[in-house]
Structure formats: structure tokens, C-alpha cells
Specification:
This protein has 362 residues and is of the alpha/beta class. Helix content is 43%, strand content 13%. It has one domain: TIM Barrel (Alpha-Beta Barrel). The chain has an 8-stranded parallel β-barrel with strand order 1-2-3-4-5-6-8-9, surrounded by 7 helices. Strands 7-11-10 form a 3-stranded antiparallel beta sheet, covered by helices on one side. Strand 1, helix 2 and strand 2 form a beta-alpha-beta unit. The chain binds flavin mononucleotide.
């Protein structure tokens, strides 16, 4: 597959123009071991966990390049002072969550959930940044909120700096900050997402990026889409959803079934989960928050703290209507459980056939 080598492959010294992010160390390492570039999403982790998981990631990737990703959105919360954040949550929002708990008969959570066990704040960002920079991972990845200072620090630590962007404006800003690699993530993507579709976004980000390689993301899961992305000027593809149902990911069975049976039309964007627009599988959770009479979700991190316990409790007690997983329109290709390597092989074979067919037909 060397003929698919692009400047992205050269930057990282890898064989395949495929990158991907997961919240599983094993699945991220498997992407790198399969010839692509695997990034571990550490935003939910404490700084100590980032140190542990970063070490585990590098060990599992056996010397292949990896990255660690965190989110650095601008917040109006300087310190992780839980009491101050709790105090700012309006009673009307608490009433709405209490109504959901009653309506769906949700028993209390027995422990903190991933949304509320830490309070997202500038103080937390700093500790997370330090942990990522101290890791042996080659790439510092930033999903939201890249800034020039953090890029400078990543470079000083000998790392490649990459950023995910959802608009040409943010692409220009990331380039000004000095990033080495960009992901142009279209609205079809799972997780936090913008409003511009992948097909419209990628060429505009490529134009803004100059010589900096761009990976196309959002709704992508096939070799045909890889070839199309190269045609748009991208140097590869970046995926999040496809890995969720891989054997390495070890996702709870409920979510695996939810994802395997979902199609592109079963995803929806809501601010109900984190306060920022997030594409996820549509369930009663997103319907409730998107209903016209629901309270307007709070800003991050207030929404995280507001819903942290009910999200945890729903998962702990198996309250299916409220259980939701971030996923993109690419969920259509989560159709059976396969290994990360098998998915990558499928994509490369499809890309090979597509390119041959295009050369014959054009
Ligand atoms: C379950 C899930 C969690 C995600 N978490 C993050 C994250 O923590 N940081 C980040 O930069 N991107 C995150 N993303 C977005 C991915 O990096 C990627 O851009 C996106 O999944 C691409 O579109 P796709 O979902 O159609 O593959 C997440 C995506 C999913 C599906």
C-alpha cells in the first residue's frame, strides 16, 4: 500500500493515510500497529490517568507513532471549584433533571460519572497539558481550543502539534498558531461538531493550510471516501465512530448493539450532554433536551456537572432510553464487529479498487 503514501504519512513516518481517535488505549494502539496513526482521547482523564494511559499507549503501540488528544475550550471557569459551579446551576435546570429521573425511573448513581468527576476548568487544562507533554507520545492533539502557547510548548517538548477544526476560520487560526497537522472535521462527525459538511469544509481547510497536511473527517468510513478525500486535497482521513464497534474497543454490549443497528439518520446533534453541540445516537435523552419546552442547555462545564450524575446512573442501571453514545453519520458502516486491522485492510482494499476503477473510467 506504499502508493497511498502522502505528506501526512511522511510527517509521521507511517505507511497508511489513516488516522483515528478513540477513548480506548487498546484500539488507539491497534490503529498505529496496523500502519495508521492512533490517537488516545484523554479529555475525560485525570492528569494521573493521562500519565498512566499515555505510557500504556506507547507500550501497546510498540514504537509506532501515537498521539494524545485533549480539549481546551475557552471557559469562564478558572479553577475546578465544584461548589462555585454547582451554585451557578439554576434551579429550573435541576428540576428538569429531577423530572427525567422520575419519568425514566432512574435510581441514584453510586459513583461520580465521567462528566462530573472532574470540573472542566483552565486549571484542569494546565495539568492535562503537562501530563500529555510529559508522555512519550509523538503528537499533541487538540480537539477544541488550540492556542499559540500550547503549540510552542508542544514543539519545545519535541512533539508534533495537531488540531481539529470545523470551519475555515478555525483552520486559519490553527495555522497561525503553528500547528503541523490539521483535521478538517465536518458536521457529519460524531462527538462535538460544527455546522459545515465535510465535502464543503475539506477543500476550504486545505486552501487555508498551505503545506500543512490536512486529514478529512466526518462521516468517513470507506476506501471510496478516502479516495474522495485525497481528491479534495486532503492527505488522508481521520475517523472516530468506526472504531467504536471494533473488538479492541471493549465498549459495553448495549452500546455495541445500539451502534451496529444504527444508520446515518439515527444520529442527532444536541447540547444536552456537555453544553456544546455533540452528534450522538438519537435516544429519549437527546429528544428530551431538544424538545421545544426543555430548558436551554447550560454552557460547558455547567451542563457537564448538571447531567453528570443522571448520565452515570442511566449507564450504571441500564436505563436504555437515556443511554447515548457520541457517533457520526459514519455509524452506517459499523455493521459488524471486526478488529481495527480488519477495518483498515477493508478501507485500503476499497481505496485501491476505487482508484483503479477511476483511472479506467476517467
Ligand atoms: C465517541 C466519540 C468521542 C469523541 N471524542 C473526541 C475527543 O475527546 N476529542 C476530539 O478531538 N475528538 C473527539 N471525537 C471526534 C473525532 O476526533 C473525529 O473527528 C470524528 O469522530 C470524525 O467523524 P466520524 O465520527 O464520522 O468518524 C469523538 C468522536 C466520537 C465518535
Amino acid at each position: 500500500m506504499r502508493e497511498f503514501r502522502t505528506s501526512f504519512c511522511d510527517l509521521l513516518g507511517i505507511d497508511l493515510p489513516i488516522g483515528g481517535l478513540t477513548h480506548s488505549v487498546a484500539a488507539s494502539a491497534a490503529i498505529s500497529q496496523s500502519g495508521g496513526f492512533g490517537v488516545y482521547a484523554a479529555t475525560r482523564d485525570t492528569p494521573d490517568e493521562i500519565r498512566e494511559k499515555g505510557a500504556a499507549l506507547c507500550k501497546a503501540a510498540e514504537g509506532k507513532p501515537t498521539g494524545i488528544d485533549i480539549l481546551l475550550p475557552k471557559l469562564d471557569v478558572a479553577t475546578s471549584d465544584r461548589a462555585a459551579v454547582e451554585a451557578a446551576i439554576p434551579e429550573s435546570h435541576r428540576d428538569f433533571v429531577r423530572m427525567l429521573e422520575q419519568k425514566y425511573e432512574v435510581p441514584p448513581a453510586t459513583r461520580m460519572g465521567f462528566r462530573n468527576r472532574q470540573v472542566r476548568s483552565e486549571e484542569l487544562w494546565e495539568h492535562q497539558i503537562e501530563a500529555v507533554l510529559a508522555s512519550d507520545s509523538e503528537v499533541f492533539a487538540c480537539g477544541v481550543g488550540i492556542n499559540a502557547d500550547v503549540v510552542k510548548r508542544a514543539h519545545a517538548a519535541g512533539k508534533i502539534a495537531m488540531a481539529l477544526v470545523g470551519s475555515p476560520h478555525h483552520a486559519r487560526k490553527a495555522i497561525e498558531c503553528g500547528v503541523d497537522l490539521l483535521v478538517a472535521q465536518g458536521a457529519e462527525a460524531g462527538g462535538h461538531t460544527g455546522t459545515i459538511g465535510t465535502m464543503a469544509l475539506v477543500p476550504q481547510v486545505v486552501a487555508a493550510a498551505g503545506n500543512v497536511p490536512v486529514l478529512a473527517a466526518g462521516g468517513i468510513a470507506t476506501g471510496q471516501q478516502l479516495v474522495a478525500s485525497l481528491a479534495l486535497g486532503a492527505q488522508g482521513i481521520w475517523m472516530g465512530t468506526l472504531w467504536l464497534t471494533t473488538t479492541e474497543h471493549a465498549m459495553p454490549d448495549f452500546y455495541v448493539e445500539q451502534l451496529l443497528s444504527a444508520g446515518s439518520g439515527d444520529t442527532v446533534v444536541t447540547r444536552g450532554s456537555s453544553g456544546k453541540p455533540m452528534r450522538q445516537i438519537r435516544t429519549a435523552w437527546s429528544d428530551e433536551w431538544n424538545a421545544p419546552d426543555a430548558p436551554k442547555p447550560l454552557k460547558m462545564p455547567y451542563q457537564d456537572i448538571l447531567v453528570g450524575s443522571i448520565v452515570q446512573a442511566a449507564e450504571e442501571h441500564g436505563i436504555a432510553p437515556l443511554m447515548h453514545q457520541p457517533a457520526g453519520q459514519s455509524v452506517a458502516w459499523c455493521s459488524e464487529r471486526r478488529s481495527v486491522g480488519a477495518e483498515i485492510n477493508r478501507i485500503m482494499n476499497e481505496a485501491d479498487r476505487t482508484r483503479t476503477a477511476l483511472c479506467l473510467n476517467l
